[in-house]
Amino acid sequence: MTTILVVDDDHSLCRALFKGLGAHGYDVVTAMTGHEAITLAAKTYPDLLLVDLGLPQLSSIEVITAVRGWSSAPIIVLSARPGEVERGAALNAGADDFLAKPFGINELLARIGAALRRSASTGEESVIVAGDLSIDLGSRRVERGGEQVRLTPQEWATLAVLVRNQGMLVTQQTLLEQVWGPGYQEESEHLRELVSALSRKLEGHPSAPRHLVTEPGVGYRFEFT
Predict the structure, then answer these.
(1) How many domains does the chain have?
(2) DSSP class of residue 47?
(3) Which residue segment(s) compose the domain that 26 sits in?
(4) What predicted TM-score, i.e. pTM, was given to this entire model?
């Protein structure tokens, strides 16, 4: 079942979309704040996100930027203020479409269907092989030596960010913001523990990692060789 994450601080709209999209076969998860949205996105891996442009506290642009760091799921922005500046900022942050409020359920369903079809046809490289590791970004499945490796949502999100950056150095601050969201830039010890756990699961010799390389005090990179 296709999972849609609805992010809007309007409780009545969240309830209406939960019922309306659910009636059309979608599995709907709702969040009313940006922080909650980022946490749920890392836990549920939605196939598509509907994000209100006027979120309180953490902005929709920050939510889109954080999720886009590790997920290629389509993002449709909803707004009662459909100005060019707001639209441009959302699209530049990584949104795929923009829908002005109020909207009808049929138009929304059409936009969702089109976004999911584009995502399926465009797709990213489905399986990445690095040594004895096989990482399927589409199905979020990791195998080591032909056996599946079980990762926590945060472990998977961290691995996905590193893999998608193709061997480039990703700073601690970037990882913390993209996996946990803004406001977590000081949790470097938590990140070290998470990467250490990933190394134990993915590396043949965790004390001398081949793929998950640490640049002390700076960040991490994923080496494919």
Answers:
(1) 2
(2) S
(3) 3-122
(4) 0.67
